[in-house]
Write a structure and sequence with these properties.
alpha+beta; four-stranded mixed beta sheet; 4 helices
Length: 195
């Protein structure tokens, strides 16, 4: 089982997260930010992974610390669960339709973090999730997982659909990238390392 369990506690947040790849057991996600719970549930379902998250944060301030720190911990868990990345396909891409929205997500588990997000929101928040935090979340994931991550919105304007398409496409692309390919000997890199 490719799994990781991380507990991160600061003066602002207390986050417990467990990630298991290749698992279709239901995820239990309680972040205190309802819309983020919904998005992470979609990510897990479309990524064929189990994600359990229990987060307590200073939501009386705003959602910033909670959302960003969950991204940090998720990125750390992805990195830990994949270990030396032997046999994984490394790359994943998905062009996903969600009603009016067409979203591209492409990622490379190269060990070199980078985020490009060409998808803007026209509302300040979705539920209690500040939309500007979606970029911060994915930035934290990419840096801590060592992941090159790109999103391009190709069509659409409904803000809920944009966010939903991003998280679903991210799950689909992640599933592709972490899949084991028996043709790969060691890691999929001419350098012999994905770190």
């Amino acid at each position: 089982m490719r799994t990781a369990k991380i507990h991160r506690q600061t003066a602002e947040t207390d986050i417990k997260l467990e990630l298991t790849f290749d698992c279709q057991e239901p995820s239990v996600i309680q972040t205190g930010v309802g819309f983020l719970d919904h998005m992470l549930t979609l990510f897990a379902k479309h990524g064929f992974l189990q994600l359990n998250v229990e987060a307590k944060g200073d939501l009386e301030v705003d959602c910033h610390h909670t959302v960003e720190d969950i991204g940090i911990v998720l990125g750390q868990a992805i990195k830990e669960a994949l270990g030396d990345k032997a046999g994984i396909r490394r790359y994943g891409t998905m062009t996903l339709p969600m009603d009016d929205v067409l979203m591209l997500c492409a990622l490379d588990l190269s060990g070199r973090p980078y985020l490009n997000m060409d998808a803007e929101f026209t509302v300040l928040r979705l539920g209690t999730l500040d939309t500007e935090m979606i970029r911060e979340f994915f930035y934290a994931v990419s840096v801590n997982a060592g992941m090159n991550l790109h999103f391009v919105k190709m069509a659409g304007s409904n803000n809920h659909h944009i966010a939903e398409a991003m998280f679903k496409a991210f799950g689909q692309a992640m599933d592709m990238a972490v899949s084991i390919d028996p043709r790969i000997q060691g890691v999929r890199s001419s350098k012999g390392s994905l770190s």
